[in-house]
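## Example record

The block below lists the input lines for one assembly entry, exactly as stored, with component labels intact.
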Amino acid sequence: MDELKEIMITTDEIKADEYLINMGPQHPSTHGVLRLLVKLEGEIVHNLQPHVGYIHSGIEKMAESLSYPQIGHLTDRMDYLSAQQNNEAVSLCIENALQVEVPDRVKYIRTIMSELSRLASHQLWWCVMGMDMGALTTFFYGLRDREDILDIFENTCGARLTLNYNIPGGLMFDIYPNFQRDVKAFITKFKTKLPEYDRLLSGNVIFTERTKGVGYLSKEDAIAFGVTGPTGRASGFACDLRKHQPYSAYDKVSFNEVLSDVGDTYARYQVRMQEMWESISIIEQLIDNIPEGDYAEKMKGVIKLPEGEYYQRVETARGEFGVFIVSDGKKNPYRVKFRSPGFSNLFTINHIAKGWKIADLVAIMSTFDLVIPDIDR
Amino acid sequence: MTNEELIQALGRIDANATVTAGKQYIEATVAANDFHAFMQKIKDDKSLLFDFLICVTGVDYPEYLQMVYHLESTSLKHMLVVKVNTAGRENAAIDSVADLWPTSEFHEREAYDLLGIHFNNHPDLRRLFLDDEWGHPLRKDYKDDVHIVSR
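Predicted structure tokens for the full assembly:
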């Protein structure tokens, strides 16, 4: 107890009817090795401290002794559900630094793969969100449909999660001959499944009672805490980089930035559900129009970036992912920093969950869609 | 606001700051003593309004440590990179900006943990990822015979 007291912020004393409990590091609803030290009075959360670092793997330090194409492979292991977008960020950063223009074919395929990846990530989020709420059926529905996307990934590049499909200059391989047919078949099928998701969970009375009005985050706080992605957009923070700073082929498609000004747990749920429809629409606009051409630009055997600093932002399924490279002109970077969306999003949790019950904390965490290696790096 | 106007506006706020157009963004290098006042002003100034702190990075250079802040204005849509250097590598200290952008509280804890930069007036300066016994691994002179294989 005394040891725990030291860890909590000592400015507020622990009163007689309050107690401290550890939620995690092994807890089903933290979705990874995350420990939350919660100060409770009965069921009410009075204070909460996230403790991270259980799977800190020193990726930024490792990157300093690796070559530029090798760094991309490490980024898969951070947010493994947004591996494609993380790879893309590193590739774009290096391409922009070298002022290499990739062929249109690469841009189109990258965008399609990114949106498939976003769909797969949102499907997994939806199914575990239901599971956190006690609805096990969602888990089977979500994983069943996600399997189709993972099969497409496997046929494209051999991997299901850690894709390594983007390399500086383009793509590792071309798409396989039936790629377009498979993607279109998946889209047709998934369009009939997505309304099922709504029928199962969105209108469920138990679910709405537990999410509507729970865990409010205002727009000002979202900006101040740097909350991006669907979590930020549910509070009205227009932060979709695909719209505001388009990269790859996002300037060639029309889609809506899903925004809500409600800011509660249910709004965060609805934003992600709507985003799945937008992703489907983006894929449909691109899939029949993939231009002919090379799948990669010829790059030098050893890539050296000119001296300077480079920053690239992309929109992953969780929010803004940033790559900051400081180069001193050698074949290894001088410093690499990954700005991960989960890191900034997680630390609002004390601000949001204070005053709510511990069961609401589980619901709030679910809509944050945390991936722990993304936070720990 | 065009880049020239942004450079002029930043020059008005702090005459001693070095403001240049970098490869991607406008970069301002500020002295450590003026740093907190500068950040306060660029957040509050009606023509700048940098309310979104995107990324905070610590970099280890041979003579000093540097903090790099990537900022964006959500209403005016311009970006800025602010850099501040510490006096030396030992006992490096910089003012915390956690009172201006709450997100920086945790980014600063990360920099304190991995680079050993001390942040003045930080509300809760503890290590974030590593145990207290660890050194500061993102420093260039960090030695670890067990976990780092040097070629």
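Strands of chain A lie at 19-23, 26-27, 32-33, 35-41, 44-51, 166-167, 170-171, 308-315, 320-327, 335-339. Chain A has a mean pLDDT of 88.
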